[in-house]
Design goal:
The protein has about 160 residues and is mainly alpha-helical. It contains six helices and four strands; from the N terminus they run ββααααααββ.
Length: about 160
């Protein structure tokens, strides 16, 4: 296998990245692809497979290890997501979307909030999260959101519909 290097950066996968990619591919091939069409037609995904993916470490890969996740890089997470999507986007999409609230929690959450939520999301049972930013008049257009938040003393007052 040749190694590609540009500007001092190697584009070869690490052994850990190859192992996780291969694990995700094997899971997708054995568990997801055989049932993907049926579940797409149902417009659903089998909930038991979330737990199986979680038990293999395929759902919380981007959550730092100190909170029970895999502590994977964005590249490694993308490799896992690509393989799971090859198997069944109906399962891969919600797993990936769970990282949307994880990132702001890691950046701005208190340690208490991180300790409360991140281990749950990294659990072997499989847990999903979401961000509630859609509104009746805006859908998912974040520029069209009308809800507001303002401080009132020690409280935050939210005005709007979700």
């Amino acid at each position: 296998m040749s190694s590609r290097v540009a500007a001092g950066i190697s584009f070869e996968l690490t052994s850990e990245q190859r192992e996780l990619r291969d694990l995700a591919h094997e899971f997708a091939a054995k568990e997801l692809r055989p049932i993907a069409r049926e579940w797409d037609e149902r417009e659903d995904s089998p909930p038991e497979l979330l737990g199986k993916a979680a038990a293999l470490g395929l759902t919380a890969h981007a959550i730092p290890a100190e909170y029970g996740g895999g502590g994977a890089s964005a590249v490694t997470s993308s490799l896992i997501a690509e393989e799971l999507s090859w198997g069944c986007a109906g399962l891969s999409a919600p797993i990936g979307a769970t990282m949307f609230p994880v990132r702001p929690l890691l950046r701005s959450g208190s340690e208490e909030q991180k300790q409360r939520w991140l281990p749950r999301l990294a659990s072997e049972e499989g847990c999903l999260a979401a961000i509630a930013f859609t509104e009746p008049g805006a859908g998912s257009d974040v520029m069209g959101i009308q809800a507001t938040a303002r401080f009132d003393g020690d409280e935050i007052v939210l005005n709007g519909e979700k």
